# Entry
Amino acid sequence: MNYRLPLSVAALVVCAGSATVWSWQHSKHAQSPQAASRSHVSPSTDAAKKMLSQVPLWFEALPDGRFASRSMGRTVVLDKQSALWKMRGGGRIQMEFQNSNKSAPKRGLDRMAASFNRYKGNDRSKWQTNIPAYQKVAYDGVYSGVDLVFYGKGNTLEHDFIVAPKADPKQIRLAFKGSSKMELDQAGSLNLEAGGDHLSMSKPVAYQTRVSGERSEVAVRFTTAPDQSIGFELGEYDASLPLVIDPVTRYSSYYGGNGADELVGVAVDLNSDSVWVVGSTDSTDLENNGDTLNGSVPSGGRDVLVAQFVGARAGQPSILYSSVVGGTGTEEATAIGIAPNGNVFIVGSTGSVDFPTVNPFNDTFQGLSDAFIIGIDPTQTGASQLFYSTFLGGTATDQATAMAIDANSYVYVAGNTKSTDFPTSSGAILAGNRGGVDPWVVKMDPRASGSSGMIYSTTYGGSLTDEATAVAVDSNGIIYLTGWTLSNDFPQSGNVPFPAYNNAGDGFLVAIDPAKTGNDGIVFCTYFGGSSYDQPTAMQFGPNGNLYIAGFTNSTDFPNVGNSIQKRNAGNSDMFLMAWDLTKAPSDWVVYSTYIGSSGEDIVNGMSIDPQGRVNLVGYTHPLSANASPSYRAFPTTANAVQRVNFGLEEAVVLRIDPSLSSEQGLTFSTFWGGTQNDVGNGIFADPGGCYVYAVGATNSPNLLVVTFAKQANLATGPDAFLINIDTCNDPPPPTQ
# Structure
C-alpha cells in the first residue's frame, strides 16, 4: 500500500501559450494546453546529472556569528573553536580545535548570490530573508601561522589547514566529543559513530605548490595522542613554502534533514536554465534557522520547502533560491508551476492559523484545514519575493490537490472540501456541499487585490464522496476537472460516452466554461471506468490536442482502445493511460486506452508529455503478496532501464509510452528506481529535447541506487526526498548498490 497516499493527492501544472516553462508535481496532475514553443538544446548527460546531483554545500550565516551548512542530510555548525555535526537520530559529534587561538576571526568567503528565506508565521517582522550564505568559511590564525578553511566539494565537506612557511603543523590537534566509537582503519581513515550514525574522515592528503605552479604531494597520516586527540604526522616537506593539509569528511545523504522530507513537484524553466522543486519538510535543520542554532525552538509541523537550482548547461550547478514557508501548524505542498511571466506558484493545504499571507484573497484561517496559494517572484529580493499568499476555504476541511496556469498567468486550482460555505463566485454551478467531500475549482488572478483576485469559483459533485485530482485548461479558457466519485447522482450533462455509474467508484471528467453562469457553465460531464474502482491521478493536453488522463484501476473491464501495450489487468490495481480526442463524436472520444502493471499494486502519481507526444509517467509498484504466486507478473521494464529489479517493497517507477507506436513498441522506456524499503515517485518533467526525464519523490531506503553523479549516498532519518535525472536515450551507467 502507499504509506503516504492521502485520499486527495496532487496534480500537475501547466503553462499555456508561448511560455518556455513546463511543470509537473505530486500524486494527481493536470496540465493546460500546448506547451513551450521556443527551441531548447538539451544539456549534456553529465551536465544534466550534475544539476541534480552536485549542487555544492553552502554555509549560512547565523544571527549569533556562527555558520551552518544545512544543504545536505546533516547539519554542521561552525563555532569559534569547533565544528559540530548534528547526526541523524539525535547524535552529535563535536570536533574541537584543541589549544587553538580563541580570538581567531571567523568569516565567510565567496558570498553566494542565492536567496535563502524563512517565511514563518504571519508576523512579517520575524521573517528571515536574504540570509547570507557563503561557499567557504575561514578561520584566520586558528593556530600560530595556521589558517583553517571549510568548503564543500561535490557531496563532501572538506577543511584545509594552511600552514605558513616555518609554522609548526604539530600545533594542530583535533579532539572529538560525542562519539561512542572512534577508530583508524587500515586505509588510514578516521571513523566515528554517534547514535548509530557514522562520520568518516578519509585519509588526509597534504601538498605544497611551488613557484612554478607544480604541486608536490607530501606524505601524511592521522596520529592518535594518549588523550585520544588526533594530529597529523608528515613526511619530508619544504618548510619555506606553505603547506596544505586536507582531510575529507564524508557524511552526505539524500536531500533531507532530521525529520520527514518529501518532494512532490518539479518544474523546469527553460528560459533561466533552472529547476524548481517543492515539497514538505518537518526537518528543523534544513535550510532554516530553527532548532537550537539560534537559541529558538522551532514551532509547527511540516512546512513548505521550495528551492531553485541553476547552471546545468554551464556545467556549474548551484542553488539560487531556497525558502521555507509555514506557520505553527502543518503544511503540505501538492503542486508547483511556473507562469509565462516567470512567477512561481505553489498550492497545498495548511493547518496553521498564522500561515503567512500577502495580498490575500482571504487572510483568515477558516476551518480545520484550508487550501493555500503561494506566489513567488524570483526577480524581486527579500520579503518582496513572496508577493502573494492566501488562505482558500470554508469552515470545515479544505484541500488543494491540483493546479494549472494559462497563457495570461491566471492560476487554476482544484481541490476538495467538506465545507458547506466554501467561497464561490456569483456564476458558480454549485454553491455549497451536496454530501461527503465535494470537488471545487477556482480561477485566480494573484496580481489583483483582495477579493477581486477570485475570477471564478464553483463546487461540484453528488450526494456521496467525490474528489478532484487533476485540472487542465485549454486555449479557449475551458476548465477540465477529473477525479473519482462514489456518487450515482454525479451531475451529468451533454451527450457523453459513459453516462452510467458502475457502482464501485468511477472516474469523472467535467468541462466547465467559467464565462457562463450556473448549469450553463457545464460543457459536458461524464463518468468513465470499469466495474471496479477507478481513480484518475494526472491529466494533460498533448501536442496533438488530445487530452491524456492517467491513473490506476482495479477493473478487469477498463476500456481498452487503440495500440494498447497491455490488454488485461495483471492483478490488483494496474496503471492506466487514456487519450481523449474531444473533436470527435462523443462515442469516439477515447482514442487510446491501456493497462500498465504487475500482479501487485501499481499507482501513477504524475505525468508529463514531451513535444514528440510521448507520455512520461511516474509512480510506484508494490508486489503485495503476489510475489509468492507462481503466476506472479513483475512490473514491465525495458532493456534501457536504469534498474531492472525491484529491490524492496514499494518501488518508484519511471516509464515512457508512445501511443503512436504499435502495441509491441509503445513502451519505449521503463525502469524501477529504489532501494530495499519504500520508494515513491511523485512528480515528473520531460525535457523538450526528448531524452531527459526529471523525477521527484520520497524514500525510506537506506541504500537507494546511486549513479556516478549521485548527490547523496545515505539516508538521513527518512522519509527523505529524492531528485533524479535519467537520460533515456543512452545506455544507463552501471549503478552501485
